[in-house]
Amino acid sequence: MHNVIIIGSGPAGYTAAIYAARAQLEPVVIASSVAAGGELMNTTEVENFPGFPEGIQGPDLMMKMQEQAERFGAKVVYDDVDSLELEGPVKTVKTMLGETYEARTVIVATGSAYRKIGIEDEERLSGRGVSWCATCDGFFFKDKTIAVVGGGDSAMEEATFLTRFASKVYVVHRRDALRASKIMQERAFADPKIEFVWNNEVIGISGEDSVTGLTLRSTEDGSESTLDVQGLFVAIGNDPRTHLVHGQLDLTSEGTIAVEGRSSRTNLPGVFAAGDVIDPTYRQAATAAGSGTVAALDAEHYLAALNEAGEPDAGVDQLAGNIA
Ligand code: NAP
């Protein structure tokens, strides 16, 4: 029986692992088989994580977090969670590779998944010109004309990065003002390869075997137009990844896992949640790391209270102080 199983290996998961490992709880991190390290693995330069004045590459930052967790005894498993049983004093985690883990506490740090536009042909042309990851696929668009859809930091980051390869990058945004931070906006505005297409949404993607163009619709007057591009990068935000806990953990109206106040406590005793999966607002690497810290401390306090009670299932409801 483990003390703590952490599901997810982004900044929230690894920071929870660092704290839990230093508290000698010997946490197990189910890191995912293909997506270990989380969203920062698809990022280039991270300029706003404290402690790195020169910036650091996203994958390097995640490798350092993992190393730090392992240094204190965290065990990282490259597997994916298939199902969870979170009720009761003993939690069961079953994985895709057929392993079953039992633990007194679980920290859910599953992050968020790329949002899709939700139009016909998006799926069909995925990997054939439609992409959600500039750092993964940008290389394939050397000297091509491409479009990025979105107006947030992700869209600005993708567009700016893609100018390394593409001859031209359109940014298609549904309004006439960006949501992105000032510094990211200014960088994009100053780039001669980037052209903004304001007040438009993508309603169609054409191409048989690969993307050849987009159909746009004006959000002002509904008029339609076309844009000749060979690639489309979708950067319209993320949705919390909660499918594993549906029916077990309470969610908020925004779709994130509900936690009590500033804690990481979910509606189930011994189950904690951290990072993007509980955060509809800030969603930064630094805030996720802070959230992972909270979850590890909450799990530690919960386990200490269990030990004081002397038996694993004694008075769990009262000890956890969870939301009603
Ligand atoms: P976001 O801030 O939620 O922005 C999403 C953008 O996509 C918005 O401009 C939104 O338009 C647009 N959008 C949403 N749904 C759409 C749809 N169905 N069709 C067309 N457009 C749609 O998401 P994000 O850019 O991924 O950023 C998420 C968080 O990560 C933010 O907190 C951001 O600061 C952070 N982040 C930081 C960095 C960095 O600091 N280097 C880099 C990337 C992300 P509206 O504006 O009209 O709503």
Task: Give a structural overview.
The protein is α/β, with parallel strands linked by helices and 324 residues long. Helices cover 24% and strands 25% of the residues. Strands 1, 2, 5, 6, 7, 8 and 19 form a seven-stranded mixed beta sheet that branches. Strands 10-17-11-12-13 form a five-stranded parallel beta sheet, with helices on one face. It has a three-stranded antiparallel beta sheet with strand order 14-15-16, with no helix packed on it. A hairpin with a 4-residue loop joins strand 7 and strand 8. Helix 4 (153-162) packs parallel to helix 5 (182-189). The chain is elongated. NADP nicotinamide-adenine-dinucleotide phosphate binds next to helix 4.
Bound molecules: NADP nicotinamide-adenine-dinucleotide phosphate
Radius of gyration: 22 Å
What's the number of helices? 7
| Assembly state (oligomeric) | single chain
Give the helices and strands as they follow along the chain: EHEEEHEEEEEEHEHEHEEEEEEEHH
Helix content: 10-25%
Low-confidence stretches: 313-324
Count of distinct strands = 19
Q: Gap between N and C termini, in Å?
A: 27 Å
Q: What would you call the shape?
A: elongated
Biggest sheet layout: 7 strands, mixed
Q: What is the typical, i.e. mean, pLDDT? A: 93
